[in-house]
Write a structure and sequence with these properties.
heterodimer; A: alpha/beta; globular; B: 215 residues; mainly alpha; 11 helices; 6% strand
Chain lengths: 276, 215
């Protein structure tokens, strides 16, 4: 009994599914049959994570966009493998995509265009530090995309505006996780709108959004009762507003006491006890 | 040498001498496969014991050997479960379920695996949103699958035919681990695969995969 005597569709593709991209390349080189099988696998592949890959052989960059038609998860964060046309082709050909991660990529604005037309089942869109993202792109997503998105990350997308974010969240009531850290455009009003338009929100990251104040946090706390995790590190907010949320069991990344005070408390606790 | 029923390694006992020792030594010398005396005893007891605490079913391999198995263990195979339901077979029926695609040696191994895993929860459906791992094979399964390649591939075929997801997953992971981290030439050597590329094709594929060779 030989490895290549095993049924291709049921078994060998299942085995290839356990291999890494590097192993695909090696297995592909073994014989004509393995070359064919790896290419067949790409047609049925559902999960593709090339995050942190700085380089891949050019042939794979050409082959993957042409052959992948069944992807559900496509991640290329921190990766510079594919150019805009390749990513557009992959998005165009994979209508079942439900998780897209292009964080820290360097692409053109029009790359997301096929997403709106072709991927109606998208649930997670991660575009952290995509400075190429514009107000127009967010507005197109807001107006033309179905309300399926549960997780969105626009942290560090310095090209978008507060109004476009509000428009987006207004159209996505199923959001459970929203990351908007490092956006200096974000003000208290956005927080209020988020709390009003996202009735299922559980996770919010507004770290280093320097224009958020205690007033915004208080109003957010008033309207949003579903949040369980709030990240406000680097925001100018205090316990005057955060205590409202802490009392409801919300986990907040900013410590309750400043670090110098914590240090002092620790010191006091280690003093030797004096008998009176 | 390993017992095919309980996986107990008994060759050392054959060297101990005495009545049991010589009996085992005899089997060892006359057969390439055997069941140790303990497993034989258990099988005989189960065959002759008329008090059945659990209903059994008879499975017949391609080479005509019949195995009596607890029906709940047999039903870990979706193929067998469907056959029983479609044929409306009672658990106490004397009827035999034929399995023409599985020989006795492999069927015995499959029953052994299913018996060990009988209390496992049903395996979860494949999560397409997660990367597939191969580092989570249990030590028992790893020992169970320390077999020659031919047997491993036969087990894969049997798990596929009988539709036993847990066994198919662990056997495929085992083969994937045999491929991972190897160069093309090492993979060819491991699985005895002939390189049928022409020199120019091989050159073309090598060019396409330049990064692959810079490990």
């Amino acid at each position: 009994m030989h490895l290549l005597d095993l049924p291709g569709d049921d078994v060998i593709l299942k085995i290839i599914d356990y291999l890494s991209p590097q192993d695909w390349l090696n297995f592909r080189c073994v014989s004509k049959q393995t070359y064919f099988l790896v290419h067949e696998y790409f047609k049925y592949m559902k999960y593709l994570d090339l995050s942190h890959h700085k380089v891949l052989p050019q042939a794979l960059c050409q082959v993957l966009p042409q052959l992948c038609h069944s992807l559900k998860v496509f991640k290329i964060s921190n990766s510079k493998i594919f150019n805009d046309e390749c990513i557009k082709t992959i998005i165009q050909n994979n209508h079942n995509l439900n998780h897209l991660d292009l964080s820290n990529s360097n692409l053109k604005n029009g790359t997301l265009q096929p997403l709106v037309v072709n991927c109606k089942k998208l649930e997670k869109i991660l575009l952290k530090n995509c400075v190429w993202l514009t107000v127009g792109a967010i507005e197109i997503l807001a107006f033309h995309f179905p309300d399926t998105i549960k997780v969105a990350d626009f942290s560090g997308c310095t090209g978008i505006s507060e109004a476009s974010i509000i428009l987006f969240v207004k159209r996505q009531p199923k959001l459970t996780s929203l990351s908007l850290s490092d956006l200096s455009c974000l003000q208290d009003e956005t927080l209020v709108k988020i709390s009003q338009f996202c009735p299922q929100l559980m996770y919010l990251d507004i770290s280093r959004c320097c224009r958020i104040t205690d007033s915004g946090i208080k109003k957010f706390a008033e309207y949003c009762h579903t949040v369980r995790t709030l990240k406000v590190d680097g925001c100018e907010v205090s316990e005057r507003s955060l205590s409202w949320l802490r009392s409801r069991g919300v986990w907040i990344d900013k410590p309750q006491y400043p670090s110098y005070l914590l240090h002092r408390l620790n010191q006091i606790q280690t003093w030797p006890r004096t008998q009176l | 040498m390993r017992c095919e029923s309980c996986s107990d390694v008994f060759h050392h006992r054959a060297k101990q001498g005495g009545e049991e020792g010589s009996f085992l030594l005899n089997i060892f010398q006359t057969s390439t496969s055997a069941i140790c005396s303990r497993a034989t005893f258990i099988e005989n007891f189960q065959r002759t014991n008329t008090i059945h605490t659990m209903p059994n079913i008879k499975l017949q391999s391609s080479d005509g050997e019949t195995f009596e198995v607890d029906v709940e263990i047999a039903k870990c195979s979706v193929t067998i479960k469907t056959m029983l339901e479609d044929l409306g077979m009672d658990e106490d029926d004397e009827e035999v379920v034929p399995l023409p695609n599985v020989n006795s040696a492999i069927l015995r191994k499959v029953i052994q695996w299913a018996t060990y895993h009988k209390d496992d929860p049903p395996p979860p459906e494949d999560d397409d949103n997660k990367e597939k791992r191969t580092d989570d094979i249990s030590s028992w399964d790893a020992d169970f699958l320390k077999v020659d390649q031919g047997t491993l591939f036969e087990l894969i075929l049997a798990a596929n035919y009988l539709d036993i997801k847990g066994l198919l997953d662990v056997t495929c992971k085992t083969v994937a681990n045999m491929i991972k981290g190897k160069t093309p030439e090492e993979i060819r050597k491991t699985f005895n695969i002939k390189n049928d590329f022409t020199p120019s094709e091989e050159e073309q594929v090598r060019k396409e995969n330049e990064w692959c060779e810079e490990k």
